[in-house]
Design brief:
Blueprint (H helix, E strand, L loop, with lengths): L5 H19 L3 H28 L7 H4 L6 H10 L19 E2 L2 E2 L8 H5 L3 H9 L2 H5 L1 H23 L8
Antiparallel strand pairs: 1-2
Length: about 170
């Protein structure tokens, strides 16, 4: 489910907002998970931007144009909890059309406001740079991205336990 229509998007935002407000009152754990994800994601931004500057401008098949970019459920939980604002709708993208947030100099969204797939995915050219420049060892980029992925899974599980404590949800 990607909530493509404006009505579906609004319904998802209202439902998540009400659920998070009602169920997370007095429960700082879920908010701390989201804040931790935000810190970790933001800390990667300088290196990821450096990779983009070196690879994206000369790329013949840029991911931001070819990929279908969407906010997923974990993104929405995260965005509600960090309270930095919510996107007005699902990103408009699709094969050949390009992401609606792609500007002249790259993405116009702050790193933490982007769908996580835009942070997580490193194209082959970027992975080649990571390996060749020893960024792998110096910045532990792939490991840190996996850590954020695990934190996002924990965030979703914490949310599901809040809203349905008697069920055994686990993704």
């Amino acid at each position: 489910m990607f909530w493509d229509s404006p009505a579906e998007w609004r319904e998802a935002q209202v439902g998540l907002g009400v659920s998070l407000h009602f169920y997370s009152l007095g429960n700082g754990k879920i908010t701390r998970i989201a804040e931790d994800i935000a810190e970790k994601t933001q800390s990667l931004d300088p290196e990821l931007e450096r990779l983009c500057i070196r690879t994206c401008s000369g790329c013949e098949d840029p991911c931001c144009v070819l990929a279908t970019v969407r906010y997923d459920f974990r993104d929405l939980i995260f965005l509600h909890l960090i309270q930095k604002g919510l996107p007005i709708g699902q990103l408009a993208s699709g094969s050949g059309r390009g992401c609606s947030c792609l500007g002249e100099n790259g993405c116009v969204l702050d790193r933490i406001m982007r769908p996580f797939m835009c942070t997580w995915y490193l194209c082959p050219s970027q992975m080649e740079l990571v390996r060749s420049e020893k960024m792998w060892q110096k910045y532990h980029l792939p490991e840190r991205l996996r850590e954020i992925q695990n934190d996002r899974k924990n965030l979703e599980n914490a949310f599901l336990k809040l809203v349905a404590p008697n069920n055994t949800f686990s993704r």
